[in-house]
Specification:
Two copies of one chain form a homodimer. The first copy, chain A, is α+β, with helices and mostly antiparallel strands and about 425 residues long. The first copy, chain A, has two domains: about 120 residues, Fumarylacetoacetase, N-terminal domain (SH3 type barrels, Roll), CATH 2.30.30; about 290 residues, Fumarylacetoacetate hydrolase, domain 2 (Alpha-Beta Complex), CATH 3.90.850.10. In chain A, about 15% of the residues lie in helices and about 25% in strands. In chain A, the strands form seven sheets. In chain A, strands 6, 7, 8, 13, 14, 16, 17 and 22 form an eight-stranded mixed beta sheet that branches. In chain A, strands 9, 20, 21, 25, 26 and 27 form a six-stranded mixed beta sheet that branches. In chain A, about 55% of the residues are buried.
Chain lengths: ~425, ~425
């Protein structure tokens, strides 16, 4: 069951001609939101269209766009005021923007900016960041490596969307350099831990679901509501320090091993833009409890890739996978998250968990790709087990059908660790 | 090494005579900040003095108080704008308020409100909530019950201030009723989990440190800086669903078992008010790594008590303990939290972890007091192992010396679980 409307019409084209190319991430059927600035000017809200950005802040100031009749929705340099509006307003705003950009009905005088001239910023104020663990293949791989190959999945995994609270303060926009973190490291044979730069710096390829509509504390959310409460999606790299993690995580879970940075792509692709690409979750190995059962297909068919470029070298694709493999959809994750009475809020990010597929080239972390260092990964000019300083990681993702819905790039480059003695 | 000044002078009295009583929580040496309203009016910033509140919002509007020369510090109904100022401004503002309330130098025309007529609100916007696990006695008790009595402390515990990210959206003010959470429960012999109201609803007696001054992502904080970055402290009850926790927490830590509510006391006692009560941390069983070593005594001698009142019955004190027992101070917790490069922000709360002392009557959770249900706790009209519906829990805390620095009450009453089917 998908809910298609005129904004999904594949025959539609834009007067912004770069949006009509077959390989663009941003045709008129996409219309993702972002935050940009030009030459150190103030932050403005925009929609990506082809290789341009439509300046919604200017449109609002000119009275040409008033989402749901609200004022100053695009005035604060962050998407939260739009996300806090009701989902019918998200839908009518999307339809209005599509009409303005339509090749037949559009307004060719609208303010456009070249993406190449804009700086893209963190698009949302991240209220809270929750990270899940929803790929059965990833959880099985990790359990096989670190626990028991014969009982790789924890007993709870097939019943609960396992997740933990992450750190909102260090979610950053694509392009932000990432310092290699320091932390406590202890190998099994070491007598005591030492404080040193991480030696097993890793990526986690994820999709981030951004909550638009929250719930009141104490009031749960159903699966049908949850799907509609999600405003949109971004690519997410949950940088991870495996050696810090293995020493710190018992018994309360990952902490500083994940706290130093998480990178998201700059364009928020709306849930509505993904409607044509809905797919059902994989078959259930054990039945889920009724509160977690979905009546609709809440996964999406999103192809995702990771590339690694050493300094001065070419990028090598090290992973190709698809979000559709995830055992728990973001809607089901949201239901579980609110089931205790937890209040979900506008601007919350729900990380999907590392997206690993069934084949070795589809694993979403270097931990899995190199099997914890056993199998080096070939890259331009050498090999990798984990990240080295000045490596650049780029995640891309897109849906492919009658048109392509792309997410843009989610990129980060590793800088050396900061000297803590200073 | 304590840093005392005129605001700590025990000889000082106030023209607000209720502040001069020996048993008041709020003498002129305390001056905790809170947020209040009168008869559904707007939220205002106040300072508790005796049984009154000094209305700082009114003082600012009248031009009688201008922290550091900044404008509209007390205009937003939340303490974050004050906390975001530098610590020398916190100190000069405290000194100015003390002068205004002084029996000799004060201004008796200032706007006072009776605490009995005011509604107290959540005093801060909670940016992020981190919960630690810093009582050796608590960690030992839990490890003894659930893991191995002979190796109750995890190997990392004596080296790392173990903590995890909690949920900021459900930190609530004292007096907010708490619904018993629903969640997945599975006893060891059950074939599958069920979704039902928590049967082991518990408290965790904690102290919450509130971060005033943050750090830039990637830039660590030293122990000396960390102490000064903390604006103040509140009492904290980290409500916990033990049966949800035991089924969900492997391998990523507590999630919905802690997400439904955490209650804090309404008055933020400033770090400066606690200066006379500084104490050193307990002796180190193993030396800490250099980055975690403190040159100053960063614990505090704070007596704390928990009472339980069944509906219509008297309150019984079920725990008496002291914050001074904590193995890791909040300053050291903050150092560790930022050591990976994690950005700490104004409004972050660092929960101390459950404060359990060495004796059975000093344990800070019902899990420990009842030894996971084995030893029922006597209360008025019956016994308890965990909380029943309509029980009220009240935490109090105070420092006692030449005067008393009190925190007020941190209270919550349990309501029945919400019917999820609705």
């Amino acid at each position: 069951m998908t809910r298609l409307n005129k904004t999904h019409d594949p025959a539609r084209t834009s007067w912004v001609t770069s949006a009509n190319k077959a390989d663009t991430d941003f045709p008129i059927q996409n219309l993702p939101y972002g935050v940009f600035s030009i030459s150190d000017g103030p932050r403005r809200i925009g929609v990506a269209i082809g290789d341009r950005i439509l300046d919604l802040t200017a449109l609002e100031e000119a009275g040409k766009l008033t989402p749901g009749g609200a004022e100053k929705v695009f005035a604060d340099g962050v998407l939260n005021p739009l996300m806090a509006l009701a989902q019918d307003v998200w839908s009518s705003t999307r339809a209005a923007i599509a009409d303005l950009l339509d090749a037949d009905t559009g307004d060719r005088s609208l303010p456009l900016v070249a993406q190449a001239e804009a700086t893209l910023h963190l698009p949302i104020f991240v209220r809270s960041f929750t990270d899940f663990y929803a790929s059965r293949e990833h959880a099985t791989n990790v359990g096989t490596m670190f626990r028991d190959p014969d009982n790789a999945l924890m007993p709870n995994w097939l019943h609960i969307p396992i997740g933990y609270n992450g750190r909102a303060s260090t979610v950053v926009a694509s392009g932000t350099p990432i310092h290699r973190p320091n932390g406590q490291l202890k190998r099994p044979d070491d007598a005591a831990p030492r404080f040193a730069p991480c030696q097993k710096l890793d990526i986690e390829l994820e999709l981030g679901a951004i909550v638009g509509t929250g719930n009141v504390m104490g009031r749960p959310v159903t699966a049908a509501q949850a799907y509609d409460n999600i405003f949109g999606y971004v690519l997410l790299n949950d940088w991870s320090a495996r050696d810090i993690q293995v020493w710190e995580y018992q018994p309360l879970g990952p902490f500083q091993s994940k706290a130093f940075a998480s990178t998201i792509s700059p364009w928020v692709v709306t849930r509505e833009a993904l409607e044509p690409f809905r797919t059902p979750a994989p078959d259930r190995i054990k039945p889920l409890l009724p509160y977690l059962q979905e009546d609709t297909p809440n996964n999406f068919d999103i192809h995702m890739e990771v590339s690694l470029a050493p300094e001065g070298k070419s990028a090598t694709t090290i992973c190709k996978t698809n979000y559709k493999h995830m055992y728990y959809s973001s809607a089901v994750q949201l239901v579980h998250h609110a089931s205790s009475g937890c209040a979900m809020e506008t601007g919350d990010i729900l990380g999907s968990g590392t997206i690993s597929g069934p084949t070795k080239d589809s694993f979403g972390s270097m931990l899995e790709l190199s099997w914890n260092g056993r199998d080096p990964i070939e890259v331009d000019g050498g090999t990798r087990t984990f990240l080295e300083d000045r490596d650049t990681i780029t995640i891309t993702g897109w849906c492919e059908g009658a048109y392509r819905i792309g997410f843009g790039n989610c990129e980060g480059r590793i800088l050396p660790a900061v000297d803590f003695g200073g």
